């Protein structure tokens, strides 16, 4: 009679079996990698959002708009 692989050796303790240990190890490592990549993606998305005032300051610093235009636009934003 064939017995499932998780019953091979160690009195049915599949996690003590070599295959079970490898499976459990890779599942845990995969979970950590997935959580870390999700955290990094979320941090990247939240850090890249510029407010309207930040964009306005950048345009003024580049010389795209004059001081008067900057002041008028800043008043409109606030």
Topology diagram in text:
Blueprint: H1 18-47, H2 52-62, H3 67-77
Helix pairs in contact: 2-3
Any descriptors?
78 residues; mainly alpha; 2 domains
Q: How large, in whole angstroms, is the Cα Rg?
A: 29 Å
Look at the helices and sheets and give the structural class. Answer: mainly alpha
SSE string: HHH
Helix content: 55-70%
Number of domains: 2
End-to-end span in angstroms? 78 Å
Tell me the β content. under 5%
Low-confidence stretches: none
Task: Please provide the count of β strands.
Answer: 0
Q: Mean pLDDT, as a whole number?
A: 79
Q: What is the general shape?
A: rod-shaped
Profile the largest sheet. none
Tally of helical runs: 3
Description of the structure:
Helix content is 67%, strand content 0%. Helix 2 (52-62) packs antiparallel against helix 3. The protein has helices at 18-47, 52-62, 67-77. The chain is an all-alpha fold and 78 residues long. The chain has 2 domains: 11-47; 50-78, no CATH class. The radius of gyration is 29 Å and the shape is rod-shaped.
Concise overview:
The chain is mostly helical and 78 residues long.
